[in-house]
Design goal:
The structure is a single chain. With 442 residues, this protein is mostly beta strands. The protein is built from one helix and 28 strands. A hairpin with a 2-residue loop joins strand 24 and strand 25. The radius of gyration is 23 Å and the shape is globular.
């Protein structure tokens, strides 16, 4: 009896240990908790966010909406946590068109707490702007347009920026424009030009000087890429990396690298060209940016392609998560970590983030729960875990209208391991929604 009693106690202890271990493991996300922090309701609080969020040092969240209300084309908002466990939203700035309109991208916070971003249209030439919001000592914010694009003939300086900005340590600002540049090779858009990588440098008189680092479609048949829709990242040597949604050797988009030269110029190298057809197993049309791991490997998503069959008879090619691994000879090898198949998400528009264990997190705009959200689905938040040489996907949340659906932007972590993101608008519910901010806790 004593042995039986001991075994019984040991069994109970083992059960407890197993439960704790499961809760602390990556699979603990399968029971994650989804919570809506704020619902945009088509009033003066803004509506229809298309980008992810950023934190400041004190834990406040910042983002953009395409519209402020029916009369104003876009806004920058802030969410502050309160003592009751809720969040209070306020608009920091409302665009009026002359200073920019329709911000698609998210924001960047500098060390002083200032916010940087782009608007896709508006400005002095109605071709988009780069802007900064400066935090005053009294807590108010001042907006200044750093640059209005299409200031040169044929929009040689770029037009219609759809991505966010990054800063170097000297305070210079870098980004991409989806069109403009006037490379001389027509791309089928209105201005006959295919996008740029640009730099904004602060001047002594308090202004900003724009310079184009690279104009896409500078090579025959746009083998160097065209239509960059995503932002940039730096490596430790000061090189820039990004994606183009089309062009390259096969026409299906590229991953590129820009290297500064001794004469002050930049040299572009295509690290990888994606396949041009929707059934391409390596992916097609990357529209999001990239991230590095600690070994210098690049990770990203493609909006189409892959070898998984989509739901609802859509055929193959719901998008991929890929990585590019550098080799000693300077080449890069591409491998697909995951092909989306509908139920686990479809058509990712945003990039990825790592957690401390090396797992990847992101969103897809469609796919997920086809019972609650019919047709294409309303999108998911997913996790990819590396286990025994393979990457396995876990759906952390499938949207339907709780409230909000269609996460255009990616997710970001807080210091406690919770995920935050936005949804664009109405899903499968019976009431209109205009976007939301959400949190997922493991």
């Amino acid at each position: 009896m004593k042995c039986i009693t001991s075994v019984g106690r040991l069994g109970r202890v083992l059960v407890v240990l197993i439960v704790v271990a499961l809760a602390l493991s990556s699979d603990g996300w399968t029971a994650s908790k989804y919570k809506t922090l704020y619902v945009f309701n088509n009033d003066s609080g803004g509506r229809l966010p298309t980008a992810g969020l950023v934190f400041d040092r004190t834990g406040n969240l910042y983002g953009t909406t395409r519209f402020a209300d029916y009369g104003n084309p876009g806004a920058v908002f802030e969410l502050k946590p309160n003592s009751k466990g809720g969040w209070a939203e306020s608009l920091l700035y409302v665009f009026n068109g002359n200073d920019g309109s329709l911000p698609y991208a998210g924001l960047t916070v500098d060390k002083a707490g200032n916010l940087y971003g782009t608007t896709s249209q508006g400005g002095a030439n109605n071709a988009g702007t780069a802007f900064r919001l400066t935090l005053r000592r009294d807590g108010s914010w001042t907006e200044s347009a750093l640059y209005s694009f299409c200031a040169l003939s044929n929009c040689n300086d770029g037009s219609y920026p759809l991505a966010g900005l990054i800063l170097d340590q000297a305070g210079n600002v870098y980004g991409t424009t989806s069109q403009g540049g006037d490379s001389g090779n027509p791309c089928g858009n209105y201005y006959g030009s295919c996008g740029t990588v640009f730099k904004l440098t602060p001047t002594k008189d308090g202004g900003w000087a724009e310079s184009v680092l690279y104009r896409f479609c500078s090579l025959t048949n746009c083998g160097d890429g065209l239509y960059p829709l995503a932002g940039l990242i730096f490596d430790q040597a000061g090189n820039l990396y990004g994606t183009t949604s089309a062009g390259g050797a096969n026409g299906g988009g590229t991953v590129f690298k820009l290297t500064p030269t001794v004469d002050g110029g930049w040299t572009e190298n295509v690290l990888y060209s994606f396949c041009p057809v929707y059934s391409c197993s390596d992916g097609l049309s990357p529209v999001a940016g990239l991230i590095f791991d600690t070994s210098g490997t690049l990770y990203g998503t493609t909006n189409y392609g892959g070898d998984a069959m989509c739901n609802e008879g859509q055929g193959p090619g719901c998008g991929t998560v890929f990585k590019l691994t550098p080799s000693h000879d300077g080449s890069w090898a591409e491998s697909v970590l995951h092909s989306f198949g509908g139920g686990g998400g479809a058509y990712p528009l945003a990039g990825l983030v790592f957690d401390a264990t090396g797992s990847l997190y992101g969103t897809t705009i469609y796919g997920g729960d086809f019972n609650k959200c019919p047709s294409l689905g309303c999108g998911v938040v997913f996790k990819l875990t590396h286990d025994r040489g393979e990457w396995k996907e876990t759906v952390l949340h499938a949207f339907f209208d709780d409230p909000g659906a269609f996460p255009y932007g990616g997710v970001t972590f807080d210091s406690f391991g919770n995920l935050y993101g936005t949804t664009f608008g109405e899903g499968g519910g019976d009431r209109p929604t205009y976007g939301s901010v959400f949190k997922i806790a493991p």
